[in-house]
Design brief:
408 residues, alpha/beta, Purple Acid Phosphatase, chain A, domain 2, 2 domains, four-stranded parallel sheet, 15 helices
Length: 408
């Protein structure tokens, strides 16, 4: 493996989630981050230094009008966030200062909340913003590296190899189809029509459920969609999520998308099947045909799931019963939902929802969560350090190899 970036010092930050109106923002440390960026720009000026923003730099899912994937409107959203939102101005000014320094590199890796940045015109616009627009110093452009194809960032720092990944690559709540994004960008630039983006379960949860509840209960951002307590907590704080049919149907589609991702997700990294036999010209052609057929089957299956939810509602199925995944299991703790259904007090519903969390290991940094386990399998033991984000859980030695795993 050949590292693209060989540096003396490497700094990695992740999941900034810059976006949303002032009262709807996840990020709240503008002054601290701006100070850090400027500090790194000025520290050890003779060293080659790289700063990696390791995913979810921008949060398009927090912007209005809400969209799972905003092909044409994301450019205006990016301009609003970077150029017109006072909260973030100091951060973008600091990036401009950083890129103006010699022996400094800014590397931006893609996450699952900023997938639109992979579109060709969005990539160009972000580069303009970060380097100062049309009057930018060409050297600043050379110091900026945008990694928007899902391959991750491979660096060498202090003689050790470091691979920066988001973590959603192996998470069935938030898989990203980078080939589909490339096709959308190509079709849009050629003026061709294209099928709408099919969102993953995580994006559906954020847009259709979490954003609605978050306005009244900002702490909802601290709940992971795949966490055991999220559904009963939502039911206790925002009962309209499961009583109102429109909300319930959307929540049902989240469960369906999550379950279907588990059925269809290939074993390979980034949704690519691992080959067990040498590829020939004929087998390569067959793979392309199979991939097209698979995409068509997924679209058909997704539409069928939503039609099934509609049919169940028309047949008199209660909205609460729609909130089941494809295997017939509740998205989360059934006991708390049952207590809510019996009109028990909110405090009792929450107590039931949170009762088992004393056994939860999510925030034990030495616990190997699913993301860690899957990345161990996918990444060669020869990599000394894996750095991920997305779940922000874990710091430990790898089970395979002598390196370590960090999830900020």
């Amino acid at each position: 493996m050949q590292a693209i970036h060989c540096v003396d010092r490497l700094y990695v930050i992740s999941d900034l989630h810059l976006g949303g109106a002032t009262e709807f923002q996840i990020f709240g440390s503008t002054n601290e981050l701006a100070w850090l960026i400027r500090h790194l720009a000025d520290t050890d000026p003779d060293d080659e230094m790289a700063l990696v923003i390791n995913n979810d730099f921008i949060d398009f899912l927090a912007e209005e009008p809400a969209a799972y994937f905003d092909t044409y409107g994301s450019a205006d959203k990016l301009d609003r966030i970077a150029l017109h939102e006072p909260t973030f101005k100091a951060i973008f000014d600091a990036f401009l200062y950083f890129l103006g320094k010699e022996r400094r590199r800014l590397i931006v890796n893609l996450g699952n909340h900023d997938l639109e940045l992979a579109l060709p015109w969005m990539r160009a616009r972000l580069a303009q913003i970060l380097t100062g627009g049309n009057d930018a110093d060409p050297a600043a452009h050379a110091r900026l590296h945008l990694v928007f194809d899902g391959s991750g960032v491979l660096c060498s720092a202090g003689g050790k190899s470091v691979l920066c990944l988001h973590g959603n690559e192996v998470n069935r709540w938030n898989p990203a189809d980078f080939e589909r994004i490339r096709q959308i960008g190509c079709d849009a630039q050629l003026g061709r029509t294209f099928d709408p983006w099919i969102p993953n379960a995580g994006s559906r949860m954020v847009i259709d459920v979490m954003n609605r509840v978050k306005r009244d209960y900002p702490f909802i951002d601290l709940l992971k969609p795949e966490g055991e307590a999220v559904m009963p907590t939502l039911a206790a704080c925002a009962p309209q999520v499961v009583t109102d049919f429109d909300h319930a149907r959307k929540l049902a589609s989240v469960g369906m998308a999550h379950a279907w991702a588990g059925v269809r997700k290939p074993e390979g990294m980034l949704g690519i099947e691992l080959e067990t036999e040498p590829t020939t010209a004929s087998s390569s052609s067959a793979t392309l045909i199979d991939s097209a057929a698979a995409r068509a089957a997924i679209q058909t299956r997704t539409r069928a799931m939503l039609l099934t939810a509609d049919a169940q509602s028309n047949a008199g199925v209660a909205p609460l019963d729609l909130v089941r995944d494809a295997s017939g299991n509740q998205l989360d703790t059934f006991g708390a939902i049952a207590k809510w259904y019996r009109n028990e007090p909110t405090s009792e519903v929450l107590r039931e929802a949170l009762e088992k969390l004393d056994h939860d290991r999510s925030f034990d940094i030495h616990d190997r969560d699913d993301t860690a386990v899957q990345l161990y399998k996918e990444v060669s033991p020869a990599v000394d350090v894996i750095v991920a984000g997305h779940t922000h859980l874990g710091a430990m030695q790898r089970e395979n190899g002598t390196g370590c795993y960090l999830n900020e």
